[in-house]
Design brief:
By secondary structure, the chain is α+β, with helices and mostly antiparallel strands. The chain folds into three domains: about 120 residues, Gcn5-related N-acetyltransferase (GNAT) (Aminopeptidase), CATH 3.40.630; about 140 residues, Aminopeptidase, CATH 3.40.630.30; about 170 residues, Gcn5-related N-acetyltransferase (GNAT) (Aminopeptidase, 3-Layer(aba) Sandwich). Helix content is about 35%, strand content about 25%. It is built from 17 helices and 23 strands. The strands form three sheets. Strands 1, 2, 3, 4, 5, 6, 7 and 15 form an eight-stranded mixed beta sheet that branches. A hairpin with a 2-residue loop joins strand 10 and strand 11. Helix 16 crosses helix 17. The longest helix has 15 residues.
């Protein structure tokens, strides 16, 4: 399984390797957003198939950014890795803040998926030349404010900020808080704290920072980052006692740092009414959507209860509490289960109790991660067939084990075929896969009788059955 590393300031250069040419144009695909919002989203990253893959923790749930490919990046391979990582961890994959340019790709990838596009998330994206020039009637208000600002403070000037300006920036925050006390607004207070931390990185090569000065006094500042053809504004603060300083900062900053960029992204409005009004007044070219894709497997869509399946000799149905003794004996047969491929005892992560394995099977179905069928002969449990590892792309894996006392009678083949057909024709899967150890010749023969060989490696033979 891939190892994800928590994002730190030391990772900025490695992340920029991907973000500096990223064409997505959304604020989440930047070093600044990853660093600024670490306390909230706890981002962690890994390089997979030539792509940057970021895993966030949102309200206790893993949420992945869309993979950002490098020059040799394979987006499909990175998405497969995300899906496999979630399968191994017992979680559904969630791909969030997906740019519009990638939405169709994910819609084609997942047969069943819930998609959301929340208005509050959308970034305000402007043409760079619009903010630099403020040309035309729609910007007459901004031009008037800028004119008044320069009339009242004719010597005010803009210049870049670097790491040497730390004392000046610290003084700005004192002045800013004096004008805008945030004591009664926890959200605003937290955002200000994060902004202060970010400005301490004004000298980093990833960021572009600049401020408007009235003599030696810093009265407005902004910090941004170039990603592809988009200048992403991470922080924009000013002293409102200087009338017109905000549009003056916006225009001057766009001219100073927007060269080579088509777009300027001033990020979302966080559902703040005043902020939304202000951002709209600057005439965005678009409100860039950020789609959240929550793939669902076929169990979620089609199976409300474990059904009863009939074959010529067997009945397959849900495990019951009366099955617990026989089920435990099946699971704890170590010699027989050396071919099972999964350590049921180790997987518990705690001491075995009477209901342990039964409860795992029940929870897996409640969460729609797997279906455990009891294989019954004349009402007695003699084995189980498990359909699991639903990949949310139409596939699932099937395994079957039969009690040693009933082995060699074709019961495994019979049960296996019944569940495979149920998955393909009742659950609407497009592909059922299976594997067996190469040394396990009896399983290889059984699988060959009802599936097609699809490959092998040093350990396993692989099989599949398609619709």
């Amino acid at each position: 399984m891939y190892q994800f590393k928590p994002v730190t300031k030391q990772d900025g250069t490695k992340l920029r390797k991907y973000y500096q040419n990223c064409p997505f144009g959304l604020c989440e695909y930047s070093v600044g957003t990853k660093l600024m919002w670490r306390p909230v989203l706890h981002p962690a990253w890994a390089e997979i198939a030539g792509c940057l893959v970021v895993r966030n923790d949102h309200n206790g749930r893993w949420v992945f950014d869309y993979p950002v490919p490098g020059p040799e990046g394979d987006e499909d391979a990175a998405l497969e890795a995300i899906e496999a990582y979630c399968l191994e961890s017992g979680a559904m994959p969630v791909i969030s803040v997906v740019p519009e340019s990638k939405a169709a790709r994910l819609l084609a990838r997942y047969p069943y998926v819930r998609v959301s596009d929340i208005r509050t998330w959308r970034d305000y994206v402007y043409y760079q030349e619009d903010l630099q020039l403020f040309a035309g009637r729609r910007y007459s208000g901004q031009r008037n404010h800028i004119k008044k600002f320069h009339t009242q403070w004719p010597d005010a000037a803009f210049r870049p900020l670097t790491g040497k300006d730390e004392a000046v920036i610290d003084r700005f925050w004192v002045d800013y808080e004096a004008e805008f006390p945030k004591g009664d607004n926890a959200k605003a207070r937290d955002e200000l704290k994060l902004a202060k931390q970010m400005l301490k990185m004004a000298g980093k090569p990833w960021f572009l920072a600049g401020g408007m000065f009235d003599g030696e006094k810093l009265i407005a500042l902004s910090l941004a980052e170039k990603c592809g053809d988009t200048l992403i504004i991470h922080i924009e603060k000013a002293l409102y006692s200087y009338t017109g300083v905000y549009p003056t900062l916006v225009q001057t900053f766009a001219g100073a740092f927007g060269e080579g960029c088509r777009w300027i992204n001033r990020e979302d409005d966080a559902a703040d009414r005043g902020l939304r009004t202000s951002k709209l007044q600057y005439g965005p070219a678009k409100l860039a959507p950020k789609y959240c894709f929550e793939p669902q497997n076929e169990l979620l869509r089609h199976v409300t209860a474990i059904p009863e399946l009939k074959t010529e000799r067997l009945t397959l149905s849900a495990l019951t509490e009366a099955d617990i003794p026989a089920y435990n004996a099946l699971v704890l047969d170590g010699e027989r289960n050396r071919w099972w491929g999964y350590d049921d005892v180790g997987g518990l992560g705690k001491p075995v109790e009477e209901r342990s394995f039964f409860d795992v099977a029940r929870r897996d179905f409640e969460n729609r991660l797997a279906v455990n069928f009891a294989v019954r002969l004349d009402g007695k449990l003699i084995g189980e067939a498990v359909l699991y590892r639903f990949d949310c792309r139409g596939g699932a894996e099937l395994g079957c084990r039969i009690d040693r006392a009933y082995a060699g009678n074709g019961y495994g083949t019979e049960a296996f075929a019944a569940v495979a057909n149920w998955g393909l024709y009742q659950v609407h899967l497009s592909r059922v896969v299976a594997k067996c150890y190469k040394e396990n010749q009896s399983s290889a023969r059984m699988l060959s009788s009802c599936m097609r060989r699809s490959g092998e490696d040093e350990t396993f033979f692989y099989f599949e059955k398609l619709v």
